[in-house]
Write a structure and sequence with these properties.
The complex is a heterodimer of chains A (about 130) and B (about 350). Chain A is mainly beta. Chain A has one domain (about 5-130): Lipoxygenase-1 (Sandwich). Chain A contains no helices and 10 strands. Chain A has strands at about 5, 10, 20-25, 30-40, 45-55, 60-65, 75-85, 90-100, 105-115, 120-130. Chain A has a 5-stranded mixed beta sheet, with no helix packed on it. Chain A has a 5-stranded mixed beta sheet with strand order 2-10-7-4-5, with no helix packed on it. Chain B has about 350 residues and is α+β, with helices and mostly antiparallel strands. Chain B is about 25% helix and about 40% strand. Chain B has helices spanning about 1-15, 40-45, 95-100, 105, 140-170, 175-185, 185-195, 210-220, and strands spanning about 60-70, 75-85, 110-115, 120-135, 225-240, 245-260, 265-275, 280-295, 300-310, 310-325, 330-340, 345-355. A 12-stranded antiparallel beta barrel of chain B has the order 1-2-3-4-5-6-7-8-9-10-11-12. Classes of the chains: A mainly beta (about 130), B alpha+beta (about 350). The interface between A and B is large, with 54 and 54 residues.
Chain lengths: ~130, ~350
């Protein structure tokens, strides 16, 4: 599985492989709340928006409702806000954002890491679907 | 974290290098952050403190106990040292969901201690502690986690609203996706956006800057919540520093429970059973109760403890105070009055403990 630290990431999906699922996974002792904004090819028109969190399920999954072919050229922009409830000195966070079809992850996975601030932390991550 | 390990090594180095007169003794202490001073089974069995109640405490990744200080020429050198770790919490990939699904395992802690005795004798100890119940644990507090998610969710919505608003207000000729990409590269721009987006957060939601206050609110409210732990430790002693002369000399089992008494009080009840090798294996029993009054950061206590060993009974009455010195550093001042067959002796104590610190905004 390729892991990509880059934040605007091209990803190739298979139109015939069924609906696209977006996953956000906390790999640290953190809570994540997130939104996924689906932008059309112009990068400005919002096609859809979904929200979720890792409070009860990790990874938290969002299934895109349309056929995969409709999303080719679109952007999936994630706004991520996260915090360490205990702030007990863990200094790093790791978060994965991934796409899957038929429960199989598609390369590359976006892995976000960095120093964990004691309060709220913010990151952006973007997939460009090919 | 790296600093903590260096500190442990430094203390260990000093403690075996320096020899001094043991004329003025401070009693052993124990440290960790969060909820006052926890005590590891390994440190407890080193026997540096007359108090046999194992104080329960929320799990931390790493905690250090130092105690039984030498005091010479104004410098205090610890004779005893113990480290307690939670192996699963040290796993860098552990998630909060994993923790809450396997709390019992994540809260299990291993401790290792060493002590330098009089006349060149040494002791080593190993312990394990299990938490049966811990309502003080912020990671498992549903209401607190829900409050955090509400705050984070509002911040997510605010950021998504702020992005087009920021572009418009600053007349930027850029698409939203290009702006978002810019945010991933430009920390200064992202910080401007974070300041800008607070206007989109509803007034009744905890603001990002107030997350620490929220945590402190829960911590203060939960410091005396029910908690119950069990610990087991073994002690080996050697008349000298040779490893081959180490011999198991004691096995101890503790259980302690804490219960709230009103908003500012807590009762701790503890029992210990030990088998000690002293001219044959002998049984030792202890039972005690401690009452705390105060808040998480400072609280006074009174304690009574009964001990039985070799058909000899003794009772210890103690009064003292637990207090937070700095982030990750706790102190305890205690006055012990020991009644042994009608002879009452007086033992003052001062304990210091260190633990992985709570992360705070500087």
């Amino acid at each position: 599985m390729l892991r990509c630290p880059c934040l605007m990431t091209d990803i190739k999906i298979s139109p015939a492989n069924g609906k696209i699922t977006i996953g956000i996974e906390a790999r640290s002792l953190i809570l994540i709340s997130f939104s996924i904004t689906v932008y059309q090819s112009d990068g400005n028109t919002v096609d859809d928006r979904f929200t979720g969190d890792t409070g009860t399920k990790n990874p938290s999954l969002v299934i895109l409702p349309k056929d995969p072919a409709n999303y080719v050229g679109y952007y999936l922009a994630a706004t991520l806000k996260f915090a360490d409830p205990d702030a007990d000195g863990h200094s790093q966070y790791t978060i994965d954002m991934f796409l899957s079809q038929q429960a199989v992850k598609i390369d590359p996975v976006i892995t976000l890491t960095g120093p964990l601030k004691p309060g709220e932390n913010s990151r952006q991550a973007i997939y460009h679907i090919q | 974290m790296k600093r903590s390990y260096l500190f442990v090594l430094l203390i260990a180095f000093i403690s075996v290098k320096v020899h001094a007169q043991d004329s003025t003794k401070f009693k052993a202490g124990w440290g960790n952050l969060d909820y006052s001073i926890p005590e590891s089974p390994a440190f407890k069995i080193l026997g540096t403190d007359p108090d046999n109640i194992l104080k329960p405490s929320s799990v931390r990744s790493v905690a250090l106990s130092i105690g039984n200080y030498f005091v010479t020429n104004g410098a205090a050198i610890p004779k005893s040292l113990a480290v307690e770790i939670s192996p699963l919490l040290l796993n860098g990939n552990a998630s909060l969901n994993d923790y809450n699904k396997n709390k019992f395992l994540y809260r299990a802690r291993l401790s290792f201690g060493t002590s330098m005795g009089d006349k060149g004798s040494y002791s080593t100890a190993e312990g394990i502690r299990f938490t049966i119940l811990d309502k003080t644990d912020l990671r498992a507090n549903t209401a607190y986690l829900k409050d955090i998610l509400t705050s984070l969710g509002a911040a997510v919505n605010a950021e998504d609203k702020a992005i087009p608003a920021y572009i418009k207000q600053n007349n930027l000729n850029i698409s939203q996706i290009a702006f978002r990409e810019q945010l991933t590269k430009d920390t200064v721009l992202y910080n401007k956006l974070l300041a800008f987006e607070t206007q989109f957060i509803p007034d009744d939601i905890v603001k990002p800057a107030d997350m620490e206050k929220l945590r402190n609110k829960y911590r203060e409210a939960l410091w005396n919540a029910p908690i119950w732990e069990v610990g087991l430790a073994t002690l080996q002693t050697s008349k000298d520093s040779l490893l081959k002369n180490l011999k198991t000399s004691q096995v101890g089992l503790w259980t302690s429970a804490g219960l709230p008494v009103g908003k500012k009080g807590q009762v701790l009840i503890g029992v210990r059973f030990a088998m000690a090798d002293s001219v044959g294996w002998q049984k030792k029993y202890s039972a005690g109760a401690r009452y705390y009054y105060g808040a998480n950061s400072i609280k006074g206590f009174a304690q009574v403890q009964y001990d039985h060993r070799n058909n000899v009974n003794s009772t210890t009455a103690s009064v003292g105070c637990d207090f937070n010195i700095a982030n990750g550093i706790w102190g305890q001042a205690v006055f012990n009055f020991v009644d042994l067959n009608g002879t009452i002796s007086y033992q003052p104590g001062f304990n210091i403990g260190f633990g992985t610190g709570e992360k705070k905004h500087s």
